[in-house]
Amino acid sequence: MKTIAVIDGNSLMHRAFHAVPSYMTSPDGRPTNACFGFIQMLLRLVDDFKPDGIICAFDAGVPAFRLEALDGYKAQRPPTDPSLKAQFPLITKLLESLNIPILRMEDWEGDDILGTVAARAEDAGLCALLVTGDKDALQLASQTTQIVNNKTGMTDVVVYGPEQVVERFGVTPDRVPDFLGLMGDSSDNIPGIPGVGPKTAKKLLQEYGTLELVLENAAGIKGKLGQNIAEYGELAKASKVVATIIRDLPLEIDFDNLSFPAFDEQQAKEAFGELAMTQHLRKLLALQSTSEPEAQAVEEETVAIAEPIIEAEAALDFLLRGLEDGEVIAAYITDADIVDD
Question: Measured at the alpha carbon of residue 242, what is the angle toward residues 236 and 245, in degrees to the nearest 5?
Answer without folding.
Answer: 130
